[in-house]
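Work package 3, deliverable 3.1, input record:
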Amino acid sequence: MNRESAFEKDYASIVESETLMFDDLGKFLADNDIEGRLVQDIKLCVSEAFNNAVLHGNRLDTSKRVRLRLSANMTAFIADVTDEGQSAIALIEKRKRPAPLDEGGRGIDLMYERADEVILSTAANGGLSLRLVFKREKTKRNISNDIEVSVSKGWASKLQEES
Amino acid sequence: MNITKNQSGNVTILNMSGRLDLASGASLKEKIQQEFEAGNVRIHLNLAKVDFINSSGLGALVSLMKETRLKHGRLTMSNLAAYVAEIFEITQLSHIFEIYETEEAAIASYNSTMPVQ
């Protein structure tokens, strides 16, 4: 059986919503036994999508909301972040990498780097909907961690044998 | 995020803990502005207890670094947790910031080099 768990909430378009989002996300991940490195990657990517929605989508307009929907089953974790701004998918896709001393513009690249899938679409309300998909099975990300751990363990046991 | 402060010679050390994100990045900028106003432009950030950073936190650090340079000061960092260090690597900001393994190494660098102009 592959039961799905879901969470949905609307947040005000204010900077302080980020902390509420982190609290809700942390609880959801713990309730669904999502642990370790995957938690860090999910928190990073969801916070990037969420802050983009608050700052760039809704432009801190307090009359607009950001909707966060989280779902998880045994194979995947999915986050959908939807704003009420004007979806600008073409602009996002045409963006250039930030220059070294630019203060912004790194969030979307971090999402593409860390999530297994990033899907942009225009929501029914005309805003941007961003879907982040993370596989719970072994991915390249987790396998490389395992290799590091096994190498370290190898050295540790070798040192133990020698002492 | 909590920020505590101590002084080593003429270097102001800020020990940070928690998340460095949109809200706390703004708090950090305010805190360092206060240091600038007090004439302290040699700032070291010990990130040992920072367990999370996102692009908003990085943006705050870039902004502070630029302002520190304008004031002919220095901004150094040390003790990055593994995941935080990885984010600096991915974004290539590890090549832009002065990052040291330890606080001691960072402070020693102030005593052996001229401020960045």
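Chain A touches chain B at residues 15-16, 18-19, 22, 37, 40, 43-44, 47-48, 51, 55, 100-107, 109-110, 113 (CB under 8 Å).
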